[in-house]
Design a protein that fits this description.
Cobalt-precorrin-4 Transmethylase, domain 1, Methyltransferase, Cobalt-precorrin-4 Transmethylase, Domain 2, 2 domains, 5-stranded mixed beta sheet, about 20% strand, binds S-adenosylmethionine
Length: about 220
């Protein structure tokens, strides 16, 4: 059995009771960085749990190993460094291989940064499009151009290294839609959580003044 377990995106209080219970009772935990998951387990008082590190497609032999362990009847939990496994992290490879192999799975839902950002954005979120991280080169320009005609709220992840450049690019490409709302959610659930609410017209200023620390989610409303 494979349990897909969401973990907090910053605030350790966001661990659900089912998630704690599952991590306690499983035989081992598949994770990205054993140090990150080790810290979480320490906080939860869970000791002596086998940790299996898994980094996605770069690690095909490890996927075979994990599937073999599951086929032997072991109960493994899958976590990522933060949030919901598979959302812009390597977890989906394990889930995809496990379902192909007919392994029973269960989900223990919880935090995900894009959902937290959307729910605090104040923008219409009955329909939205989640883009993960924007491509760095190929297709980037075309994708940002497509925002012009997107009729749903757009949400994507950005790193501290690229947030300024990305916001500047959006300000430029969407300059004919200056009133379009944009919300940048930074450090969600953490001590310095902030929602910066602006418009395309104000984006260039925000790009240069926003605190360049931590983790970011960008939400763009419709025209
Ligand atoms: N699996 C995770 C989830 O469910 O949200 C996402 C993993 S992805 C590798 C990491 C990205 O998620 C970060 O670069 C950032 O864009 C976003 N992120 C994660 N935690 C965040 C937080 N506390 N505040 C804002 N963004 C966050």
């Amino acid at each position: 059995m494979l349990s897909i377990v969401s973990t907090p995106i910053g605030n350790l209080g966001d661990m659900t009771l089912r998630a704690i219970e599952t991590l306690k009772k499983c035989d081992g935990i598949i994770c990205e960085d054993t140090r990150v998951t080790g810290q979480l387990l320490k906080h939860l008082g869970i000791e002596k749990k086998e940790l299996i590190s898994f980094h996605g497609n770069t690690d095909p032999g490890k996927a075979d190993f994990v599937i073999h362990e599951l086929q032997k009847g072991r109960h493994l939990a899958l976590v990522s460094d933060a949030g919901t496994p598979g959302i812009s992290d390597p977890g989906y490879v394990v889930v995809s291989r496990a379902t192909e192999a007919g392994i029973a799975i269960e989900v223990i839902p919880g935090a995900s940064a894009f959902l937290a950002a959307l729910s605090g954005s104040g923008l219409p979120i009955n329909q939205f499009i989640y883009l993960g991280f924007l491509p760095l080169k190929k297709g980037r320009k075309t994708l940002i151009e497509s925002f012009k005609n997107e009729e749903r709220t757009i949400v994507f992840y950005e790193s501290v290294h690229r947030i300024e450049r990305t916001l500047m690019e959006i300000a430029d490409v969407l300059k004919d839609q200056p009133n379009r709302p944009v919300v940048i959610a930074r450090e969600l659930t953490k001590m310095h959580e902030e929602f910066v609410r602006t418009t395309v017209g104000g984006l260039a200023t925000v790009a240069s003044t926003i605190t360049k620390k931590g983790e970011f989610v960008v939400v763009i409303g419709t025209r």
